[in-house]
User: Fold this.
Amino acid sequence: DAGITQSPRHKVTETGTPVTLRCHQTENHRYMYWYRQDPGHGLRLIHYSYGVKDTDKGEVSDGYSVSRSKTEDFLLTLESATSSQTSVYFCAISEEDRGGKTQYFGPGTRLLVL
Amino acid sequence: GDSVTQMEGPVTLSEEAFLTINCTYTATGYPSLFWYVQYPGEGLQLLLKATKADDKGSNKGFEATYRKETTSFHLEKGSVQVSDSAVYFCALVNTGFQKLVFGTGTRLLVSP
Assistant:
């Protein structure tokens, strides 16, 4: 357990509304990530952060923005939700040990955009 | 770019059968390789990993060996249980980078 929580765990929203998902970690990890999981695609990286106020895009960043004002929180915002953003969203942190860098995942947020 | 290819599922086995889930990768440099497992309704859990060629990762009876010559990291278990039913993801992260690249996942169904 890497001390990662996500909120909300489930959300239903309407097309065109803004949505913010929160990822919270308690162990002061520098790197945090947002992924989406869709059938047939595995997990795809949306955005990641390598420190407070330091973020970068992943492979499917269009329509999403992120912010990290504190080490422990990484927010994912859908500015104007679309049905194509219906998905399960996972947050992750990266932990370095003798074996290198390993990512650990939160429990996920299931988002339905109607 | 880097990529991971997994065998299509679902893989359907009877309890106590031998399991192999194939995973091959394409990457420059010397990636670290991972298997993650996702049980129904849950997030991804790290199952095992290997960080260099010929390393063997193992956990809960599962094993995978990092084969650089065949660019493979096949997951094996000698005797599966019903509780092993889940989706298994192969993934890599390349040296110096922080981004995991995932395969599409393989669903395993084990019947009593």
